[in-house]
Here is the input.
Amino acid sequence: MKPTSKSRLKYLLLCLIITFSNALGAQEVKSRALSDDINVDALLYHEDGSIYGSGGWDGSNIYKIAPNGDVSTYASGFIGIVDMIWGENDTIIGTSYQDGRLMKIAPDGTSSTFVHSSVGVASLYRDYNGDIICTINPGLAHPSPGKVIKVTPEGNVSTFASGGTIFKPGGATQDEEGNYYISNLGDGRITKINADGSQELFATIPAMGQWKIGYIKFWNGSFYTSAISENKIYETTLDGDVSVYAGDGIPLDQDGVVPDVSFKNPNGMAVAGDTLFVISGLDATDKLRYITEVISNIDEKYEVSSDHSLEINFPNPFKLSTNIEYKIASRTFVRLNIYSARGNLINTIVNKNQQAGDYVIQWNGKDLQGNTMVPGVYFYELSTDNFIARKKMLLLK
Here is the structure.
């Protein structure tokens, strides 16, 4: 059968989508010069472009790094400030490692005790339910293997996970389905905690040296861990496949195409859209490193017909939900899909015939199963029989 013009058009559109989707994956490392040398462990990104750095295992300060690299002391007086997450109304929740407290830091820099737990409170992660997952690592020389606790918004504390493959836990995160992942500073393993609470060994990072893997971030569909002593960033896929994402192991500080760049004790990481920020964790540094996903023209419209149109979503960036506006010139079948930065289908929010007119559809930041998506870059795509357009949006934490 001879293909119709519509069939040929759909085939062409499919080829365009595949071409653009396969163009993802190129990355490069750059640096942002800082106005002062600072000792920092963890990083926390703010939507205004500023980044906050914690003073580390024995540090007393939280630093604010402005978008232009100017450094100022945001808050001080802590006893080992290891990690931070955002609370309500731009407050920061931080771990005070040496005295076992979770601190609440107001926007003016004043602090108060939120929860008193146990010595060794390390990294923090706010899960999809709003609870705080906190790793307890009393130190590599301490006989206790450590554990993971859960802190509710009201400040109630309970043991979330212990034993099994959890050993000197470093960081915590979740995947798109809500499973938890704990990185182990002591032995380089990543523990997966399933929805029913059962544990399994998810992956082992082949890092060398005393400080194996610190923080862990779920970003663009994979897990990223900082191998501190080995001067590398590792990537682990959802299938558990491990590879070096960036860093050749040489303890220097150079930019370029990853993975052939040099890091010096990378530890703290923060994600924002298509960028992974990294900073040195053991020595004072005057640079903030960032790895950017170089995405091709996937966010540009590739329209076949000018009769319909797709507008920029609003707000963008957004936290909870965003509105997508489009125009249909004549009755047609309309599909509006949401994709991850790697081209995986996340949700279909329109899939029906529609009359000519202007439409505004809201996406609530969830997938087809109702799971809240992690912060990052997403794409929305409008397609009809003779039109296709795709644009980029940014979901913030």
